Hints:
The structure is a single chain. The protein has helices at residues 2-11, 41-48, 53-59, 61-67, 87-99, 108-111, 117-129, 144-158, 160-163, 183-194, 203-209, 214-226. It is an all-alpha fold and 238 residues long. It folds into 2 domains: 2-129, Cytochrome Bc1 Complex, Chain D, domain 2 (Orthogonal Bundle), CATH 1.10.760.10; 144-226, Cytochrome c-like domain (Cytochrome Bc1 Complex, Chain D, domain 2), CATH 1.10.760.
Amino acid sequence: MKKITVLLAALVSAGVAFAAGPAPKKSGIEAEGYVWNAQEGEKIEALTLQGDVTRGEEAYEVCGACHLPSGAGRPDGTFPQLAGQHTTVLIKQMADIRAGLRDNPTMYPFAVTLTDPQELADVSAYIESLCIPTEHGKYTEADAMIQIAQGKAMYEKDCQECHNANGEGDKEKFYPVIAGQHYAYLLRQMTEIRDGHRRNANPDMVKVIKPYTDEQLVAISAYQASLKMPGSMCGDAK
């Protein structure tokens, strides 16, 4: 109930982006000595805590307004699919937004309603436990098969080493699941990483995709979105 009250207060305010005040700004990839997966502040504590799925379900109420109660996000890429994502990735991204290391003015007012590292761990555990939606936003243009084939070749050459063969990522190394993510969201994030606008990005990834053209980013995003996200699919027999 507490989370619903906070959410409603934010939504009826003059603007959601101002509900929690301006987000802080912390130096990221542009700063000398930047370590993209540094374990510091509340992040390091949250990563050591056991998340409670039941408590996390309540904490997730503020997230469901945008990411949907199912965690499916929006197929148009406005909000990513979260269901099934690694807890480590979720904790890192939420902590980075709260600390001002990743710019997300839409999410910031909601992220700061999480009270402490334990709640970060709880909501991440709940999100990871959600079943994987069977449908998501894909590349649907007439040349989809060509783009996916070209993207597959690039993915196997440049991305597979970190994100693994099926796009399942690596929980221990903070590499996200990208298989089955919405195409439009993947394209937007990789464009921002390539262009230096994702301040908490992995410098190694920036180097890899820096030479990519817009057309190549379309192809690799189309391929990643075509992959099946690992985990328990919604509607699967138990």
